[in-house]
User: Fold this.
Amino acid sequence: MKKRKYTYYYVLQCNYGYGWDDVAFEDEHEINEYGTAWQRIKTNAKLYRENTKRPVRIINRRELKSC
Assistant:
């Protein structure tokens, strides 16, 4: 099996008036008892929207793995 060169994340960002800040992230390939990464990040986004009343977005990010 080929090793992945990058780690892929779903990143939840919130805009507090001075730019987008990362508030949470999930590894795309991780599955646990709370569901897939996409399900968890969407749940977090919903909670942030309800509690902060600020613009929220989900982006994809990749980072080079260290050797």
Q: What stands out?
A: The chain has a mean pLDDT of 90.
